[in-house]
Amino acid sequence: MNKTPKAFLISDxxxxxxxxxxxxxxxxxxxxxxxxxxxxxxNGNLLSAAIASDGQWRFPVADSVPVKFKDCIIAxxxxxxxxxxxxxILAMSRAMRQNLxxxxxxxxxxxxxxxxxxxxxxxxxxxxxxxYEIILAFRLEFRYSKEEIxxxxxxxxxxxxxxxxxxxxxxxxxxxxxxxxxxxxxxxLAVLPNSPSLVHPGKNSNRLIKKRNDLLxxxxxxxxxxxxxxxxxxxxxxxxKPLPLPQNAPHLLNRFKAERVLLEINSTRITSTINxxxxxxxNSILKRYNNRYRANDINNISALILDAKTGHVVSYVGxxxxxxxxxxxxxxxxxxAPRSPGSTLKPLLYASMLNDGFILPHTLIPDVxxxxxxxxxxxxxxxxxxxxxxxxxLSRSLNIPAVKMLQQYKYERFYDKLKKLGxxxxxxxxxxxxxSLILGGxxxxxxxxxxxxxxxxxxxxxxxxxxxxxxxxxxxxxxxYQTEEKNDQDYQxxxxxxxxxxxxxxxxxxxxxxxxxxxxxxxxxxSQRVAxxxxxxxxxxxAWAIGLTPNYVVCVWVGNADGEGRPGLVGIEAAxxxxxxxxxxxxxxxxxxxPKTKLKKLKVCKQSxxxxxxxxxxxxxxxxxxxxxxxxxxxxxxxxxxxxTATYRVTDQCETITNMQHKSWFxxxxxxxxxxxxxNSDYKALPPFMSGCENGGGNNVMELIYxxxxxxxxxxxxLDGTRxxxxxxxxxxxxxxxxxxxLDNEYFATTTxxxxxxxxxxxxxxxxxxxxxxxxxxxxxxxxxxKENKRRN
Length: 793
Hints:
Blueprint: H1 5-23, E1 37-40, E2 46-50, E3 57-58, H2 67-77, H3 89-102, H4 112-121, H5 127-143, H6 146-156, E4 163-164, H7 166-174, H8 183-191, H9 205-221, H10 227-234, H11 250-259, E5 269-271, H12 276-293, E6 300-307, E7 312-317, H13 346-355, E8 364-367, E9 386-389, H14 390-395, H15 399-409, H16 411-421, H17 430-433, H18 446-461, H19 499-509, E10 531-536, E11 542-548, E12 552-559, H20 571-583, E13 599-605, E14 619-625, E15 637-642, E16 661-666, H21 670-679, E17 702-706, E18 711-714, E19 726-732, E20 738-743, E21 746-752, E22 755-759, E23 764-772, E24 777-785, H22 787-792
């Protein structure tokens, strides 16, 4: 009897339903067990791993399974793996005959595909469950390739104790990558999943050896290896107790765990950009220095190396790793920790001022006692140069010139520049930091600091590649995991810092004498050229050193994670030696090319470093950033008028113009001159005026160094409870001149040569008047706070 159309429709629907059930039979994700977080070096070797949340060592599925393991597991479990479609009928029928004959389970007919299904389901195996597994095995074969199936098996098979998967087993039992295992070692691991609870390393060793040797003979029989190889493999020892996994980059591992979701990485495993050889050597160097520094209770040290060419992290050591000593806080990743940067931001200010046309590379900057709104910066050596070129102030890391430069540049502008350059820890308004921003008054992370300098390196490196244009992507943060490179081309005419300013800054940073070398390194052509800067935070809490070449940026931090300061914890002594030891690990390369089209040859006053004016006698041609054309003319060279003997200054009131000599003279303001001539013996002070000549140039012979005009001063109590004193300090162009001091119009003292006075005026506003023996006057006011006002402030 023929079927009706309705019957055909019903049968089609049933067939379609069965097809859909078969198609969607497997879950979207076959294995849902948590996996270990794993970081591999760029060469694929394991750097660090963390146990999965369920307490198992279970690595994510690898891209490929070693050929030796495939041969071993197929020979041991499923020799027709590549011929069947999930179920081996011959193996199943053989197993059924053997089990019926023995009246117990003595043989299994499960294929590797079926075992993958069983591992994913973890249910009691009834006859119906086994039938269902057969159906799922067929479905698995349709959905996955043979290589993917064996990869799932290798990643999820039990290997005894809390070890799951081939790779975890290889590291736990042999301490190396599975691809490096011998035939004997691989055969040992291949027999473990068959009976992990009964046969596992350290127990039942005779059973394990027999199973391994039987498999090796089988491999020889199946022609995977020859018999002599099998016999030699039988002589290999079996592993003892499980080994600890490598922890060569534990802080990077923790960073990856924290950032994985944000980075949109699905796997808990990454192949990093870390150079394993460099990472191990950096760990060793930091450990050696840490052992030395701990004698001074300096417990922590970290280092970061970036490849400027690729933007990759080469080495990431967030801290020494000693989890057994909890008090050392070695688990804290100091690369991510916000810390005071000390002086490490000074090159960024120098570059910004060059970039924006405020200074030239050698412009003289004041270095005199300074008080700004109650803030009194001090140089590390507590001395003063009077005036020093900007590049020398940078290489010597002088604080007062840096503050003077920031005062000129404006801290609000510098604050905005730092944010654009990638300093992400400036979470307070600019006024919160003020001028202390340049001396470590803010916080930075090593990550941001190194990335900012790498952005500058990349910008300068790409001068020719980008045909003089700028790519903002040069300031993208470094990556620590391998990913597809994106060639983002967004070239612009302007950048945060131009090529010329960066080049000049790196040249200034190269001038610092290296620690322990006493300058002798310059005599050896094999020594690497490095631009570098150190930093020390207030209270000796942080010691920094950052260095760079066209190829690498290296940053080092030394200190205590809990913020405790220690004597001797300074950048030049604690961090700089580490920095240069790390650079010795890296290959040498050429220095930066000179970006001549972004530099301009300018006539510069040799003595002052300013753009030369008509009164500058000694001129030099210098390559300066193009914005240097906007800088001011030298203010320190003045035309003075001398008598016919060139001994005295004169005016037209005491000398005829025809008898005058007109000469250019290098004249610093009195306070700068006072300190400058101490360190510069060739400095010539202005000649005195001829008797009978009036000083027509106004009062420029005296300057009050402290206190400045309108200063507010608090006088503290001494240790014995008596009221302290304020030290007045003045400078006069004529060192032998006398100064008569008056407070509130009352004379109180006379000084000659060194013009300093200690007084204890009452609280309130005061007028200080200085008169020299020629009648020149200097009048300034200052305010003394009382104790109550100090407390309120």
